[in-house]
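Weekly sync, protein design subgroup
Attendees: M.S., D.O., the rotation student, P.L. (late)

Item 1: inverse folding check
M.S. brought a backbone from last month's batch and wanted to see whether the design step gives back something sensible before we order anything. D.O. pointed out we never logged the input encoding, so this time it goes straight into the notes. Structure tokens as presented (139 positions):
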């Protein structure tokens, strides 16, 4: 936002599990202003999941006159962007707002190493397979 002058939005409300917890977007707005000196232009704090992030953000941006947006995968995990697209298109929002890959996440900028699992990921897969095999052997 600082480099381009483009307004920054943040979406995130209370958890389904802890409705009394601080709203994620309010915490982000405070940090953006206090620690980075760049207030967020739009703050959506009702969403509890990815679908609501999309729906409520579209409503907020449309009411402000925005016609498009880009989701930064450093902030919105790239795996969630695919789930975000249908949510942005529901309810008459087709073509109005669409998440786009930023330079950081373009496939041509990745090396083959980006597709290898991490050491922690391999450990989790190994542990899961071990437990699954143990359950199968006990059955």
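Designed sequence read out in the meeting:
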């Amino acid at each position: 936002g600082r480099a381009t002058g483009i307004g920054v939005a943040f979406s995130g409300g209370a958890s389904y599990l802890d409705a009394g917890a601080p709203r994620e977007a309010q915490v982000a707005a405070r940090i953006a202003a206090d620690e980075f000196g760049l207030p967020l232009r739009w703050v959506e704090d009702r969403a509890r999941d990815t679908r609501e992030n999309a729906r409520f953000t579209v409503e907020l941006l449309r009411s402000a006159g925005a016609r498009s947006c880009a989701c930064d995968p450093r902030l919105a995990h790239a795996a969630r962007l695919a789930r975000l697209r249908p949510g942005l298109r529901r309810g008459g929002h087709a073509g109005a707002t669409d998440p786009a890959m930023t330079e950081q996440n373009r496939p041509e900028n990745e090396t083959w190493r980006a597709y290898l699992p991490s050491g922690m990921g391999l450990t989790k897969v190994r542990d899961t397979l071990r437990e699954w095999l143990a359950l199968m052997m006990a059955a």
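Discussion: The chain has a mean pLDDT of 76. The chain is about 40% helix and 5% strand.
Action: P.L. to compare against the previous round before Friday.
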